[in-house]
From TrEMBL:
It is found in: Membrane; Plastid, Chloroplast. It comes from Quercus lobata. It comes from the Eukaryota. Belongs to the ELIP/psbS family. This is Early light-induced protein.
Length: 184
């Protein structure tokens, strides 16, 4: 803040100022070389136009449009926070987890916590590893999920189903915890 106020006082001062009663000093920051000064009057309207080269325009009109942009196949790019893999993998796991938790609850009458404590951890780990590899293999080959979504089964529908399954699984576990037993 001190540097900012010092610069403002230097730049706001006139070209010459009295340093002491005996001498004057020229403000070196306000001397602008004439090569930098624009010959355009200060309040003139200025329009800037961009013109593409003729070859560039012809190549854009003759080349076919690309179907999808090439995605990165780098491991860290795929599993980055905003990468294509984490939410998709978590959504797929949540969809399978929610359906299997409801199916076991209907067939055996066990809540989610009882399912996990009665041997559900190895099943969870195995399913997680299998789905992670199955989801990453096409991404490592450079195939995006959006390029394979046609008709009713789109990649956006899968993302929303995964998000709802994540919410449903958390809501199921929370409801069973608060209730103290199975949902059904």
């Amino acid at each position: 803040m001190a540097a900012s106020s010092a610069m403002q006082s230097i730049l706001a001062s006139p070209l010459t100022r009295v340093v002491s009663n005996r001498s004057t000093r020229v403000n070196q920051f306000l001397i602008i070389p004439t090569s930098y000064v624009s010959p355009v009057p200060r309040n003139a309207i200025m329009r800037v136009r961009c013109m593409a080269k003729k070859e560039q325009l012809e190549s854009e009109t003759t080349s076919p449009p690309q179907s999808t942009p090439k995605i990165s196949t780098n491991f860290y790019d795929l599993l980055a926070f905003s990468g294509p893999a984490p939410e998709r993998i978590n959504g797929r796991l949540a969809m399978i987890g929610f359906v299997s938790a409801m199916a076991v609850e209907l067939s055996n009458g066990q809540d989610v916590f009882a399912q996990i404590s009665n041997g559900g951890i190895p099943w969870f780990l195995g399913t997680s590893i299998l789905l992670t590899f199955a989801s990453l293999i096409p991404l490592f080959k450079g195939i995006s999920v959006e390029s394979k979504s046609d008709g009713f089964m789109t990649s956006d529908a899968e993302m929303w189903n995964g998000r709802f399954a994540m919410l449903g699984l958390v809501a199921l576990a929370f409801t069973e915890y608060v209730k103290g037993g199975t949902l059904i």
